[in-house]
Amino acid sequence: SIGEKNNGFDVLYHNMKHGQISSKELTDFIRERATIEEVYARSMTKLAKSAGNFSQLGTFAPVWDVFKTSTEKLASCHLELVRKLQELIKDVQKYVDDQAKVHKKTKEEVASTNGAVQTIQTTGVALQKSKENYNAKTVDQERLRKEGATQREVDKAGVKAKKATEAYKGLVEKYATAKSEFEQKMAETAQKFQNIEESHIVHMKDIIQSYAQSVDETHVQIGEVHTEFLGNMENTSVESLIQKLAESKGTGKERPVWLCVMFCSNSFYSSSDSEDEDEPRKFRVEIKPVAPNNGTHQSRATIDELKASIGNISLSPPTTVRQFFITVHSFDLSLSLSLSIPHNSLSLLLFLSFFLSLYRSPFLSLPLSGTSRGPSPVTLASQDALPIAVAFTESVNAYFKGADPTKCIVKITGDMTLSFPMGIIKVFTSNPSPAVLTFKLKSTSKLEQILPNQTLLFSDPSQSDTNTKDFWFNMQALTSYLRKASEQNPAASYYNVDILKYQVSSNGIQSTPLNLAVYWKCTPTTTDLRLDYRYNPESMLYPGPLSNVQVLVPVDGEVINMQSLPNAVWNSELNKSLWKLSDISEKSDNEGSGSLRAKFELSDGPSTPTTLAVQFMSEGSTLSGVDMELLGAGYRLSLNKKRFATGMYRTKI
Questions:
Q1: For 20, phi and psi rounded to 5 degrees?
Q2: For residues 195 and 197, what is the distance between their CA atoms, to the nearest angstrom?
């Protein structure tokens, strides 16, 4: 459109310049969002540190580790969003710079159009004045003729009218030429401006799409962290908290021995009153069995052992001799000693410590220093098989295109993690040559790629069996890794080690646990949406239910009302609808098949079909079927946990 008074060129040119302003403002918006996310992430990191500094006493103490880990992961999610937004800002800034170059070049290219605009505007003004003059002179000549003026006056007016007519005619022709040139150049320039504007809008939408995707991915990650947090809290039972307290604060599994040492006030045990007080005294040993509560006798030391051991004790030369009466009571033995030893506190303490170690007491209480507890149960049973746990976690990423199953793109990846109890570190560090931890990775035929932790694992690349693969640990590196982990988090009851990652071969839609097909119908006033889904047990070796199923659908066009089946929740701030579904399995209605339907009423339609996001998880099985078997002696598998969840699970028409 030329526009009023031929001002269309100015309107289009300034609109192009406004595009650059919009780009800069979008940069400022994304930068401000990144700043907010960074401040929030740092606050979460600070909160995580606070959780780590909370009281480590009491049964509730391990829960703070769950809070700390979850909060640290949330902080990482927001920091990752900051990184993505900062990268996006660089892209936008580059676009702003390129945009400025395009605008400068365009300004030079349309300079002739600007000249044509000025020419037609100037000619138009002159033409209007000439027309007005022509009309005035013609009317004046006609008036003189009607009023009977002299012929001379009439002729004079005629000359003026003729000049006005010729001038007006010339300007009409000039305006026609200027108009033709203007319209030709303006059409070319308008098309150029339109191309620039279309490219600008497309680029801006791409930027916003990247922005929205980054935020959406962060929300998905945050959801996964919350899901993990809930799972950890569900697994943190009352029994497990009490068990952890018993393991960390317990004083041993043996029933305690009570030690009573009584110092007699100037009463010496001697054979005669005239005997020298500095002469070492003899001692008397009395052992009296006590009737057991449970009907069993579990005496740890025999009379002969006690006599032999005490007889071999060597103490420092006596200075002053005192008499002590020692009584030891346990649930299976009562023992009384009356002896004379030098009055030397260190010697006495050494003697008592030796005596109790002989009796194998797990608990020592001396005022004649506090308490000390025995080693952890794992250390005490180091000669037995040591417990470790394994977890397989897989992520399925899928992109469905409309309702065409042949266009489904699938990628499945997995992680294998081993968990070592705290006490195993003492076994490794106290043993210069601990048993080599060796395992077999089974059912690997569906794995396209296996990436072991090369710092910790060895494997034989010449293995010919495509369905299994053997690995063994670098025990020195493993010990060093676990020692460092325990130093960083000494309160932890176990330590996780990521040992390998893998990628699972996929067969399109047949490898997806939940098949999807989406249909959109968009009009200026309404949008109809249908999402068909089908549970696919063939994708799993051991089919299990899909839980925490959620479907998120962005809808633009200013939604004013939504009707859905089953019921969904509409978020007007995010312009998204959310379905939360119960578990899906073969036991569900229609064997796990169903549809989500929604009708959106719009005030600024039509909508543009967008990408739908789906999330779910499954406990107890994997998509690959991969498993682990321990080889050799020295270790036992206490837990084998398997799960898979969605990564980027999307569908678009």
A1: -70, -35
A2: 5
Could you tell me which residues are beta bridge partners of residue 391?
A: 417, 641
pLDDT digits (tens, 9 = 90+) for 17-71: 677 788 888 889 999 999 999 999 899 888 988 887 776 667 777 788 888 888 9
Q: Residue 210 and residue 29: Cα distance in Å, rounded? A: 14
Cα 67–Cα 68–Cα 73 angle in degrees, nearest 5: 100
Contacts for 345-348: CB closer than 8 Å, 24+ residues apart: 346/316, 347/315, 347/316, 348/324
- For 311-330, how does the pLDDT look when each residue is reduced to its tens digit (9 = 90+)? 444 444 444 444 444 444 43
Residue whose tokens read 């417990």: 387
* Helices first, then strands: H and E counts in the chain: 10, 23
Angle in degrees, 0-180, between the axes of helices 151-235 and 111-146, rounded to the nearest 10: 150
Please report the sign of the dihedral spanned by the C-alpha atoms of residue 164, residue 167, residue 169, residue 171: negative
CA distance 26 to 88: 11
Quick check: 619 pLDDT over 70?
yes
Q: Model's pTM, two decimal places?
A: 0.46
Euclidean distance between CA atoms 83 and 88, whole angstroms: 9
* The 514-522 sheet, strands edge to edge: 514-522, 526-535, 593-602, 559-565
The residues, any chain, with a CB within 8 Å of residue 343's CB and separated by 6 or more, are: 318, 319, 320, 321, 322
> How many angstroms separate the CA atoms of 77 and 229, rounded?
14
Output the six-digit token pair for 539. Answer: 């994708």
Task: State yes or no: cis peptide before 609, omega within 30 of 0.
Answer: no
Residue pLDDT, tens place only, 146-159? 888 888 888 888 88
Quick one: which H or E segment has residue 106?
Answer: helix 61-109
* DSSP character string of 290-330: ---SSS----SS-HHHHHHHHHT---PPPSSEEEEEEEEE-
